Each structure stands twice: as structure tokens, then as C-alpha cells.
Amino acid sequence: MEPLSWNIYRYRLPFTRPMRMLGRNLTFREGLVLQILDTQQKCGEGEIAPLEGVHQENLEDAERTLLSILEGKEVLSPEFPSIRFGLEMAWNVYLAKFHHQKLIPKNLSALPVNALMTSDVENIDEFAQHQRQSGFKAVKMKVGVKPIEEEINRVLTLKKHLAHHISLRLDANRAWTLEEALKFASAIEHAEVEYCEEPLKNPEQLASFSEKSELPLALDESVYETGNPDFLPTTNIKAVVLKPSRLGGWKSCQKWVDWALQKKLNVTFSNCLESGMGLNWIACMNASMVPAPTPAGLDTFQNIKANLIDPPFQLTKGHYSISQDWPRFLCLNAEKIASGRLDTDLLKDFQINLNIGYSS
Q: How many CB atoms are located within 10 Å of the residue 294 CB?
């Protein structure tokens, strides 16, 4: 293999409107892009964008550690899953280009994506009508931000206006006590909800909740906090939600997918507000690992004004068509902050078996 080099870019992309996430109002998203390239200008890019409140590492820590790894001063530790996610992406996209291979999802023409309804949506009827027209098969509704009674009314109103073929998912982000969650579940028990993610402030009470309520649940924070599937509750659990940049990339997600499929649980791939670059890679992971993908949580891109890739991440009738070619990196929307020569021996641990299917 010919000599390689690397560049690190830093980006800051504004949102179209403030996003309420994890108790904070966000107005922009920032992160890093690692680019690996050769003398023939073949290149692969990967996104590294830890999100406060989800990742333990922050962006400054990630930048400092990434530089140290690329300079051969240290090896990557499990404390930096966002770096592994980006390194895997950059290196394997480069390898696919070097070997003149194209990423083509096996037996999948398009990946379904769920629509996202945040707590600031006021005209629920109009929102539901838009989802019917846009071809979505599922809607994920954020709950747990407003008073319980208001959240109950919002859920029932949305369910009333949603088309029957659109499933409703709820995400409480551990907002409630056990008593509050049971009150909420009882009030919506006839609403035919696909599942509710992490309703409890204290996740150790999930088993107690399921003893008293039949509301289907999904595990999200519990997945990356526990680390070991054997320690998770399974009663009334319908799905696991996987955030690849928090779990540490491809191999870690594969472990969780294998466990979930063995337990006959659905798998929902989601994101940590990555740009279209990261979302495209997550879509590839989803297509590769899950034989019959359920709608993925990748609708957050619609709140980001600028793009890091061309063509941009876009949906058609509620689906994402994964391109045969990796999108082009729009470096004009990022600032180069470091560069150097690459020792490929550092990246042997990051090569993965892409089961998506290849075409020369």
C-alpha cells in the first residue's frame, strides 16, 4: 500500500432552530472529521463528535486523544467510543475506495427511517398529516419534558391523527419516577404504542414497572451504561436502541445485534446528532447487521443547516437510499486543524468485515 497521510478537520454546523436535547437547548453541532488519503487523492473520512450528556468524553478530549493516537503516542482505550466510531469509518471507507469496491446494501433497496417529533412541536395535527404525506412508517415522539397530563394528551392526540400504518414510538430519556411512569402508561394503554424508551429515572426499577404495566419498552441508555447484555432486564422489553458512536463502533454494535436477535428483540439504530456523514455510516451498519431493519432513528439531519457530504443525507418517502459510492466530503464547511503522515500499522485493529456486500 502506498504512503498515506491524515488530516483532522473541525466543524460547527448551525441548527435551523434550537433543539431541546437532554435538558439543554442546542443551537449548533460541532465535531471532528478524520480524513485518510493517499498520493492519488483516494480518501476516506470519519466523523468523531461526542455529545455532552451521552458520551463521557468531550470534544477537546477526543481531539487531543485522536492526535496522540495518529502520532503513535498512545493506543485507543474504551473510554473513547466516538474515536473508534470515526476511525473505523475513515479507514474502511478508504479501503473500499483503494480496492475499487462499492458499498451496496445486501437485499435492501432503501432503509426505513422514523420521523422525529420533539417537545416543541405545537400543531400535532399538522405534524401527523406531514408524516402521512412523507411516507414514514414510524414516528418517534419525545416525552418527559412537559407535565405528565400534557404529555398524555399530546400522545393521545398524535395517535388519533396518525395514519393506522404508522407506528408510534416514545422516548422519555429517563424522565419519570416509577409512580409517574405508571400513571403515564395507564393513561395511554389503549393507544397502541410500539414501545417507550427508558421511562424511569432509576433504570433498576424497570422490572418493577413491567410487573405493573404492559407498556412495551425499549432500552437505550441502559445498553451503553451496562455494557453486558446478560445484566439487562428482558421482561416486556421489545427493542434495543443502538447508538454506534456511543457504543464504540461496528464490532460493539454487532455484539448487541447478535444478542437482540437471539432474544427475538427488535433493533433500532439511532444517532447522537451526527451530521449526514455519520448518519450515512450508521445506515450502512444497520443495513449490514439487521436482516429486516425496522425504521432507524436518523431523522435529526433535518435540523442541520449545512452539509458535510455531497450528495447530502436526504430521505425519500420516509426511506434513505444508501449510495453505491461514499459521498464526497465538503471540506469547505470545516476547518483543517492538523495533518501528518500515517502509520497504517496503527489501524489494523480498526478494519472490519463489511457484510453489506461489495461490487467491483
A: 20
Domain boundaries, the chain: 4-100+332-359, 111-328
Contact (CB, 8 A) for 225 and 246: no
- Please give the CATH number for the structural domain made up of 4-100+332-359: 3.30.390.10
Same fold, 4-100+332-359 and 111-328: no
Q: Is the preceding omega at residue 311 within 30 degrees of 0, hence cis?
A: yes
* Number of helices and strands in the chain (H, E): 10, 17
Rounded Cα–Cα distance for residues 154 and 137 (Å): 19
Cell triple for 54:
451521552
Condensed to tens digits (0 to 9), the pLDDT of residues 233-271 reads 889 999 999 999 999 999 899 999 999 999 999 999 999
Give φ, ψ of 158 to 5 degrees.
-65, -45
| Among 304, 303, 325, 252, CA closest to 85 | 252
CATH architecture of 111-328: Alpha-Beta Barrel (3.20)
DSSP state of 185: H
pTM: 0.94
Nearest to 29 by CA among 302, 243, 222, 268: 302
Tell me the three cell numbers of residue 294: 425496522
- 13 pairs with which residues across the strands? 29
Contacts for 250-255 with beta carbons within 8 Å, 24 or more apart?
250/88, 250/285, 250/352, 251/352, 252/81, 253/285, 253/289, 254/289, 255/229
Distance of alpha carbon 29 from alpha carbon 107, whole angstroms: 33
DSSP-assigned letter for residue 348: G
- Look at residue 161 and give its three-state secondary structure: helix
Please, which residues have CB within 8 angstroms of residue 126's CB and are 6 or more apart in sequence? none
pLDDT at residue 100 greater than cutoff 90: no
Question: Which residue in the block uniquely carries the three cell numbers 462499492?
Answer: 102
